[in-house]
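Async update (no meeting this week)

Hi team, since we skipped the sync, here's where things stand on the single-chain job. The sequence we agreed to prioritize is pasted below, unchanged from the tracker. I ran it this morning and attached the output directly underneath so nobody has to dig for it. Comments welcome in thread, and please keep replies under the output.
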Amino acid sequence: MSTIPKHYMDIRRHRDQKLENNPSDSIILNEWHDDIMKQSVQQSLELYASLHGPPPSSFCFFVMGSAGRKEQAVWSDQDHGIIYEQNTDEAKRYFVSLGEEISNGLAITGYPLCEGKVMASNPFWCRSIEEWKVQADEWTSDESWESIRHLLTFLDGRCLIGQEAYLSDLKRTAYRFIHEKRLINRILENTMHVKKAVNMLGQFLVETHGAYTGLLNIKETGLFPYVNAGRLLAIHENLMATSTYMRLQELPSSILNEENKEKFSQQFLKLQKYRLQYGNHKDYESGHYLFIDRLSKAEKKELKELIKDGQYLNEYVRRYTEREGPHGNE
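Output:
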């Protein structure tokens, strides 16, 4: 459409007003993101249906990445897809085109387009249930770095609007393929590298050049170890939870006892709070970095402990997987 729909702009103004409050609670912030995204997608659905008629079949619109895990910072780009029931050319044309409207709408309301095109406007991420099952089989048969990355991206998916059962069923199918094809260790190799945050002298390893010189990449050094460990254990146990917090909470005590489940999940929430409180939130990319020089001495000490615990959890998951055998729980 040549003009910006009024309702998209209304949603954007509401979003910008909320941004001024600088939210520091990740749970509240992500509930707010859900509300904004749902409003935007609903507007896209209504606009598209008014021009092209109702959807030809039931469907699930799902979000992935940090949105799928309910771990978005102040700014977040788009990662989403569509699963539709009817496997026809007509349905594909409709839903891919609908995906374009949704992607454009979300861009207007404050969520930049995904540079990697992980969006429902891309036919790769907009498929019928039947096609998605074939894709899950292909991802788990290929074992290449890219296929594993796509698979893990999909497994972080969470239904935002539509038939949640479509996504749950596909995840169960993907889990079955993973276990049958014994991919746990391959996934481990793909995700468990940890970028160091502190040197041998106990100093933070901040960025040394570029736009974020002097800042700490909290996403890669602090959050990713928890995220990757939680995801791998969720796959191991066929859990449907997508947030790192809930994945850790829902683990059986045979993997993590109650004390450690509570410890690691709370440590992860604290890390997210540090990112929100001391992050550079000019845009999506800058939200990954922390102003270390703004922390007190006590906060720096606590942050190092939070990061160290994530690395410990990461290493624990590696040892646990290896102890279970070369094929995990198969």
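Quick observations from my side:
The chain has two domains: 6-181, 188-324.
The chain is about 55% helix and 5% strand.
Reply here if anything looks off.
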